[in-house]
Design a protein that fits this description.
Order of helices and strands: EEEHEHEHEHHHHHHHHHEHHEHH
Distance between the termini: 28 Å
Helix content: 40-55%
Number of strands: 8
CATH topology: Rossmann fold
Low-confidence stretches: none
Shape: globular
CATH architecture: 3-Layer(aba) Sandwich
CATH class: Alpha Beta
Largest sheet: 8 strands, mixed
Strand content: 15-25%
Number of domains: 1
Length: 289
């Protein structure tokens, strides 16, 4: 994986992150979701690296990056804290201004990064999902039926016990999944979901989402803040997003003046399932197409 990319551990003020980076040109930061690690991008990153410097970290709490101490407000896994890590990481690598692409929970980090540090984000791309506050305001019966895990993960202790009792059953590990993900990517993910410290941190991510992250979104909306950079939203047509939200772009429009987007014929993990189509869409956006 990631031929000609550099793999290293970077010590930051509040976290130590495992990160791969490679390529040349304008920088783009790729942020993975739950329960993946940065290796989820291994099919997309080399395609982007033909035109861009590509940076792929394990987010704080995920994969082989450091795990924060627990706090009552779950602030160690707040998207603001993870976004601050990304600013520090990119500065360490010499990038003051950069594009950001987020998938799943990484989309929420990307959103918070662009809201809190608008001068440093040139372009912003979300793969699925809507802002956390918007999602929770629309948490009707359909949301509870399809994404009930948000609320289960938000409970104390019980999710860890359920998942760690049988991670393979919980995350659906199978020969088919290994083929779809690719052997090395699957091995990295498999190690993560079997590590108690990583599982706990990933759940703290969801606990932060139901509390402090929602509060940050609400404060932005109350203050009338919005995204300042060009914004692309891509969503999988074979997942739940359209069933949940119907017109996804209409939810994003109050947050982003320069907005575009469309669906891709994929399941939830676009970077693994349709890497060429995803890379083409991202390059068209990043390069002004």
């Amino acid at each position: 994986m990631f031929e000609e990319f550099t793999l290293e551990r970077v010590e930051l003020p509040d976290a130590t992150l495992r990160v791969r980076h490679g390529g040349s040109g304008p920088p783009v930061l790729l942020l993975h979701g739950h329960p993946r690690t940065h290796t989820t991008w291994y099919r997309v990153a080399p395609l982007l690296a033909e035109h861009h410097t590509v940076v792929c970290p394990d987010l704080r709490g995920y994969g082989q990056s450091s795990k924060p101490a627990d706090t009552d407000d779950h602030g160690g896994m707040a998207k603001r804290a993870l976004a601050d890590d990304m600013v520090a990481l990119m500065a360490h690598l010499g990038h003051r201004r950069f594009a950001v692409v987020g998938h799943d929970r990484g989309s929420y980090v990307a959103f918070r990064l662009a809201m809190d540090h608008p001068e440093q984000v040139s372009h912003l791309a979300f793969l699925g999902l809507v802002p956390i506050g918007e999602a929770l305001e629309r948490a009707n019966e359909r949301f509870a039926r399809l994404w009930w895990h948000w609320f289960f993960f938000g409970q104390p202790k019980k999710p860890e016990r359920a998942i760690l009792a049988d991670p393979d059953a919980w995350y659906g590990n199978s020969p088919e999944k290994r083929v779809q993900m690719g052997a090395e990517n699957y091995a990295d993910y498999y190690a993560a979901v079997h590590d108690p410290a990583t599982v706990h941190a990933m759940l703290e991510d969801y606990r932060a989402g139901l509390g402090i992250d929602r509060e940050h979104d609400a404060a932005d909306r109350e203050a009338g803040r919005s995204l300042r950079c060009p914004t692309l939203v891509l969503w999988p047509l074979f997942d739940d997003e359209e069933e949940l939200y119907a017109d996804i772009l209409s939810i994003w429009r109050p947050w982003a003046a320069d907005l575009r987007g469309h669906g891709l014929r994929s399941g939830h993990h676009l970077a693994e399932e349709v890497p060429e189509e995803l890379a083409a869409a991202l390059l068209g956006f990043l390069n002004g197409g």
